[in-house]
Amino acid sequence: MVAPLESPFSRARIAPSLWDPVIRISHWGLALVVLSNAILTEGGSTLHVLAGWIGIGLLALRLLWGIVGPQEARFSAFPPNPLAALRHLRQLAQGRPEEYGSHNPAGAMMAYALWGLLAVVIATGLVMTGGRTPMQVAADQAAVASGDWSALVKPGESGDDEDENEGWKDAAEEVHEVAANLILFLVLLHVAGVALESRAMGRNLVRPMLTGSDKDRRK
Amino acid sequence: MTGRTPQEARRRQTAALVAFLLVQTLAVVFFIGDVIGDLREDPQSIHFIFEALVTGALTLGVVFGALALRRTIDLLRAQEAALDVARGALSDVIEAQFAAWGLTPAERDVGLLALKGLDVAEIAEVRGAAQGTVRAQLTRIYSKAGVSGRAQFAAYFVEDLMGQGLKAQA
């Protein structure tokens, strides 16, 4: 069997030359969702909501994988540790970062920050749409387009209730936008970090997240 | 290599499990959203109860799918690790034996290529040497090893791999 890591952030092993398929799919899937919803789709549109719901699935799958997945995919292999993250960044600045069996401590903090912000964006998005599925959003929009505005009024909403609801939705919208912009900022930071780390380690860190290389796999 | 077939099969199995898992997870998310919508409207209806049951089963399916996938990935890695260990052990044995025979670095190279099954012409091409040189090196290797030729030379290490029991019976 594969030898278990003795401690989190073990120095005995280097990160896998190819991440497992669930990690890769959730990584690039979420990247696509974030980019498409930030740049391509219009907020509130069916496509925007649909991409968001796919994001829920991908995030849920990755979080489940963090509990039941293989060693280096589990949260226990890269616990959130801000002090270790700072130490790693200092080593990176000095040009000699340590090797870890999973994400390095700084990368781990980035992953948790992105997942947390994604959860916030998803939750606020659900508040804004009243938790309607993309299918319902599409149906409502089709109804409104055909002149039936009653689709905008949901049963049970009236008077003060509605005002309070609108207040919540406005607040959610603010948080939704701020968190989304924060994600884009962190994505830039993440890409820069990977580039720096790859250079300092003299090894392409993007390849293990894509297909790996035949050489690495056969060795 | 012959050892790759079961591994290839397992890799394909992994890919299939991942695809299932992905589709199932997305389906679960949409179902849960739908069920929550129904819950707000009429939690007593048969429709809601039925859908909630289906969603629960689907969620369990996702969890078990993830566990099955993990097991497959672990198995695949264990096989690769075992193969690596065997490779490493064999190369240790070969190195030690070559050193014991007092082979020169060039002879070790030629000996390794010969063990891998390359013929004289191929070895000459790989090393950029004349075929006559390679033939002379092979002859020296066989004489240092005290074997009659290539077949016995290769058998020397295969015998090691097969363990002591075979030797005792021979």
From TrEMBL, chain A:
InterPro entries the UniProt entry points to: Cyt_b561_bac/Ni-Hgenase, Di-haem_cyt_TM, Hydrogenase_cytochrome
One family name in Pfam for this protein: Ni_hydr_CYTB
Membrane topology, as annotated: Multi-pass membrane protein
Subcellular compartments: Cell membrane
Keywords: Cell membrane, Membrane, Transmembrane, Transmembrane helix
The keyword Transmembrane helix is annotated on this UniProt entry: yes
GO function terms (MF aspect): electron transfer activity; heme binding
Transmembrane segments: 21-40, 46-65, 106-128
GO aspect biological process, one term: respiratory electron transport chain
Domain of life of the native organism: Bacteria
Entry keyword Ribonucleoprotein: no
Record's GO cellular component terms: plasma membrane
Boundaries of every Cytochrome b561 bacterial/Ni-hydrogenase domain copy: 19-212
Main location: membrane
PANTHER family xrefs: BLL0597 PROTEIN (PTHR30485:SF2), NI/FE-HYDROGENASE 1 B-TYPE CYTOCHROME SUBUNIT (PTHR30485)
Name of the molecule in the record: Cytochrome B
High-level lineage: Bacteria, Pseudomonadati, Pseudomonadota, Alphaproteobacteria, Rhodobacterales
From TrEMBL, chain B:
Molecular function per GO: DNA binding
InterPro entries, A to Z: Sig_transdc_resp-reg_C-effctor, Tscrpt_reg_LuxR_C, WH-like_DNA-bd_sf
Keyword terms, alphabetized: Membrane, Transmembrane, Transmembrane helix
Domain HTH luxR-type: 100-157
SMART domains tied to this protein: HTH_LUXR (SM00421)
Coiled-coil annotated spans: none
Protein name: LuxR family transcriptional regulator
Transmembrane segment boundaries: 14-33, 45-69
GO BP terms: regulation of DNA-templated transcription
